[in-house]
Amino acid sequence: MALRQLLSPLLFPAATLSTSTASSSIRLRTSPLFLQQLIQPLLYTPIAIPAAIRIGVPSILAEIWESILRAVPKKKTSHRKKRQRFLAGKGLKDVTALNKCSACGNVKKAHVLCPFCVNDIRKLWNRGSHNNSQSGFQSKQYLTTHTIDHAHPTDIYALATTPTQILSASGSSSILVHSTNDPEFPLSQTLEKAHKLGVHHLTTSRNGKVAASVGFGGELKIWSEEDGKWSQSREIVDSNKPGEIWAIALSADGQYLAATSSDGRINVWDNLADGAKIREFETKGSFGMSIDISVDGRFTASGHENGGIYIFNNDTGRLFHSLPGLVRSVRAVAFSPGGKLLAAAGESKVIALYDVSSGEQVAILTGHGAWIFSLDWSDTGEYLLSGAFDGKAKVWSIDHRTCVATHAETEKTLWSVNWLPKTGRNEGFATGGSNRSISFYREATGG
């Protein structure tokens, strides 16, 4: 202690020592505890550290401390907060962007349902619900009037009607023609050896004068009716291979024939021009499983294995709409008689209704528990008929968007269902499928 008191005045002058002590005391009062500990002299003996070095140490440590604070990462921001910041900043442009509704034409926000259309649908639904409760809306009743047992030796794959007849085709080579004017539906004609390997699709024109059939051998034949009798008018030869041509549809007057192919193409032939191919529509290459032509002849619709649904404009020869909604194979498409709606169904087990002009999906009809293979509209467009893999046939009210009748007399597949020509006030339909029989139903008469 005596030595320290002796040497201190020599090594550390009083002025320098007082200045250093004052600055150190100020920094000690304003620095964190950790920093205060760092800037304390490591040796109590003033001889160990010169005064000049002791004066610079606190400032260096302060700078190091500030660097440490800047290097510490900030608290991570959650994805939700980032999303909120995005919407409040750059994403705000997308939220506030405006476009025109394709259905009603009113201006609405992008990526948001049109409030005008939603309001109209809500009003329509409320009005329909109110009318149902007031009028006592009930399900329709259809009675089995006749059944042709074992009409074909194999599964019946296709039914097609005319104003006076119903044609049926199966895995056998013959096409049968039954009269619908008689309640017993007698057999009026058999087209022997129409297709050697059997028939998988059959269709008729709306006027009942032309029919077309496709065989498992790949042949495509056109039939014409005269005085109630059918005969082959021509065969479409297009280097067709077995399975290449699948679903077919005729225009209302029978002049044009459209068919899907295994590679997704839609071919159109003119029956009045010796069966010349006049148009070919391209899709994404998925197997074409169903097709239909609108009553007015303006549009052709096709359903595909990948769930795609396409509407083509026959006047321009271009794609009109690519419709969303179904993600599985579309096995049936059908235009309403007025041409305003398109029904599509298949392995999704639901029926989707689309507005033809806008391409918007307007309804989903649920109720089937199995794949849907066939669709057919009534003449008035009020009802839609469907047949499914589980043997159930359902009648749907388009106005009320609900099933009004279900028939399940067989558990075997219904490959085809068709409305019958209306007689008087009562409507009827026919079904055919794996039970090899044709069943006929008529609407029950009210008392």
TrEMBL record:
Record-linked PROSITE patterns: WD_REPEATS_2, WD_REPEATS_REGION
Database matches in SMART domains: WD40
InterPro entries cross-referenced by the UniProt entry: Ribosomal_bL32, Ribosomal_zn-bd, SKI8, WD40/YVTN_repeat-like_dom_sf, WD40_repeat_dom_sf, WD40_rpt
GO function term, MF aspect, one: structural constituent of ribosome
Gene3D superfamilies, sorted: YVTN repeat-like/Quinoprotein amine dehydrogenase
WD repeats: 238-270, 323-364, 365-406
CDD domains assigned to the protein according to its UniProt record, in alphabetical order: WD40 (cd00200)
One Pfam assignment: WD40
Keyword Ribonucleoprotein: yes
A GO CC term attached to the entry: large ribosomal subunit
Annotated signal sequence range: 1-18
UniProt keyword list: Repeat, Ribonucleoprotein, Ribosomal protein, Signal, WD repeat
Listed GO biological process terms: translation
NCBIfam families: rpmF_bact
Family (UniProt): Belongs to the bacterial ribosomal protein bL32 family.
Name used for this protein in its record: Meiotic recombination protein Ski8/Rec14
